[in-house]
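Exam revision sheet. Question 4 asks you to relate a sequence to its structure. Input first:
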Amino acid sequence: MTVYGIDLGTTYSCIARVDDAGRPAVIRNSIGEESTPSVVYFESPHHVVVGREAKNAALVQPELVVSLIKRDIGKSGMTLDFHGTEHTPESISALVLRDLVKSVEGSTGEEVRDVVITVPAYFGVAEREATRQAGVIAGLNVVNVVPEPVAAALYYGVLKPGGDRTVLVFDLGGGTFDTTVIRLNGSDVTVVCTDGDHGLGGADWDTKLATLLGERFTAERPESEATESEDFLQDLGLLAEDLKKALTSRQSKQQQLHFRGARVTTEVSRQDFETITAELLGRTMDITARTLELAADRGVRHFDEVLLVGGSTRMPAVAEALRARFGFHPKVHEPDLAVAKGAALFALSESLRLRLGDHVEGDGAVDGVARELGMSTAAVQTMAGRKVAIVTPRAFGVAVVDPDDPEEKKFLVSHLLVANTPLPVDVTEQFKTSAHDQREIEIQIWEQAGALASERPEHNKQIGEALINRLPPMPKGSPVDVTFRMDENGTLNVRATEIRTGKTATTEIKIGDLDDRQIAAARETVARLS
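Answer key, structure tokens:
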């Protein structure tokens, strides 16, 4: 059965597979579009609409429409209520996934079961696990979750096969941004380092433009109170997105604005747009500079290519800023579709690897799969043998008592794993108990939450815990070994060992806000919605 690649985007999503000719191809949705807006309209208690029509419904019933939900995925305790039923970011994302799958099944007649879903490179373990849970709620088997720039680099590598290359991927999507340095060695992909902000994306450019349009209207019609109207603001949001796209190819555009019979015509130039969004673009350049410093620390100072990924990179100011600040001459390779196509390639590689196991070099097994897929034996061997190596997106550590606090009530976060450590990795550090006659040891596991690693708790978030209990009374300062192991898929395992007794506590950190029971309930809720 085919394994599909899904780009579950903040503003748009799409699904792809590798066709019979061995090429990755995006499958169009039911209205013939390659990308589907990641928007859900809860039309009634029993029916939802996803995509273009849902986006249009925001003009009429904005209180029943959800967009940009990817920015909230993995957030603890967040729910939205529609028609008396609570929905989580994971279950709403599942509705988008289900719609993509229905389009494929409707056009191909083939059941979609196994998928690979992409995530921003800077997503932490909570967001990655929540994305996987969204797939499960949609009734899918999520074979793997792969960083978006890795998928884009895979597609680029297929487009331009050749020798070893180092690539900088600048990925500005609708709601997230990251920069990633990647080495391409033959068919293998190795992430050198990554950085980003999953609260920054093209939607923020839209918001700036919508604000400008609102100000222009109010200046002409100060008595209208238009900016107090939710309907008017929703209309401005849609107009702003279309205007942004128009200014990608035009120097200026006239825009008509309407509110309760009042009409204002205003001209917005590309210069106006770039001026009001300069701060946003500057943030992407600062993150890029930080990424280049990380790469230089790892011996990478030359880039064979700079790839622009994500629809928002079509804005001319992006390439111009990269040229002006860093001297780069970036290239665009299907920025809207590259991630989905790369995910399809990764999905096929995962499928072949699972089917062939250790028999990649075994001609009989490989030949059989090659005949079944209509591919050459060499192509199957290359894809099954492809290696993808990623890095830790953030720092991970444990809570320790602040040595400068005489009352020992404050704590800091001591990071065992630092951001951009190649995976898999295994690190052990020794800590000491903080109290006399201690009978149990609680290990709190924390993840970096800010842009830069910090030992301050407010710049981190707790993602799990482990407990060693039923210990004999121990003197203060008793040694405890803590081991962090993160596998090649980003799953974190933590083991704590009390040295004197040898007692251990082990936990696998596959963080998600939903437990198995909640996932099953969400799956039933989604299944009831037509």
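Marking note for examiners. The mean pLDDT is 87.
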